[in-house]
Amino acid sequence: MNAEETNLKGCWILEPDVFEDERGYFYEGFNVEKFKKATGFDFDVKQINQSRSSKGVLRGLHFQTGDKAQAKLVSCIEGEVLDVAVDLINDSPTFGEYSLVRLSAHNKKHFYIPKGMAHGFLVLTEHAKLMYQVDALYSKEHDSGIIYNDADISIPWGMQDDQIILSEKDKNLPTLKESKIDF
Ligand SMILES: Cc1cn([C@H]2C[C@H](O)[C@@H](COP(=O)(O)OP(=O)(O)O[C@H]3O[C@@H](C)C(=O)[C@@H](O)[C@H]3O)O2)c(=O)[nH]c1=O
């Protein structure tokens, strides 16, 4: 497995070894020992999520607060997405900065986003299916977020706002300045 820390400390891009033969391919989506060896820390999976979305759908920027904060290991198993992490860790030197990676069923990259960062993605292909593992259970009460186009963060999504499809919840998220984040 190849592992590279991004511009945000604790946020990693992982590339599993892919074994191809005449039947197709095989790879390990997560291996607790290899993950620890590569990153130096544990990831204790508690829940595995899947979502499928159409082109232009943007989900995010989301995080859970307090003792329900989640680290996430994200991969794309159909199509391609632009996946983004935003550093919201209070005393971090990169607070408010983002890390971007294209995840696709083809490149099989995985994006590890630690607790304290927001996560979002934009679907670039007709459809995309995301699978992500998290280390804390879902809690509606702790579900929180910031708006995807916050001018202070300025993520280069590469798609016009009028082509982006958001949930009602995501349309009404606050900016980073407006939000009082409680990790
Ligand atoms: C996230 C989540 C949602 N749900 C339910 C709540 C709701 O009825 C429905 C859809 O929820 P949402 O609109 O919040 O789904 P979505 O916008 O896909 O939310 C996800 O976005 C990405 C970017 C993330 O990083 C995830 O952690 C999660 O926040 O699914 C669960 O039951 N368990 C979960 O873990």
UniProtKB/TrEMBL annotation:
SUPFAM superfamilies: RmlC-like cupins
This protein's UniProt keywords: Isomerase
Active-site residue numbers: 62, 132
Stored InterPro entries: RmlC-like, RmlC-like_jellyroll, RmlC_Cupin_sf
GO biological process: dTDP-rhamnose biosynthetic process; polysaccharide biosynthetic process
CDD domains assigned to the protein according to its UniProt record, in alphabetical order: cupin_RmlC
EC number(s) given by UniProt: 5.1.3.13
The protein's annotated pathway: Carbohydrate biosynthesis; dTDP-L-rhamnose biosynthesis
Pfam families: dTDP_sugar_isom
Marked site (Participates in a stacking interaction with the thymidine ring of dTDP-4-oxo-6-deoxyglucose) residue numbers: 138
GO molecular function: dTDP-4-dehydrorhamnose 3,5-epimerase activity
Record's catalysed reaction(s): dTDP-4-dehydro-6-deoxy-alpha-D-glucose = dTDP-4-dehydro-beta-L-rhamnose
Family in the record: Belongs to the dTDP-4-dehydrorhamnose 3,5-epimerase family.
Quaternary structure and partners: Homodimer.
Primary role: Catalyzes the epimerization of the C3' and C5'positions of dTDP-6-deoxy-D-xylo-4-hexulose, forming dTDP-6-deoxy-L-lyxo-4-hexulose.
Cross-referenced NCBIfam families: rmlC
Name of the protein: dTDP-4-dehydrorhamnose 3,5-epimerase
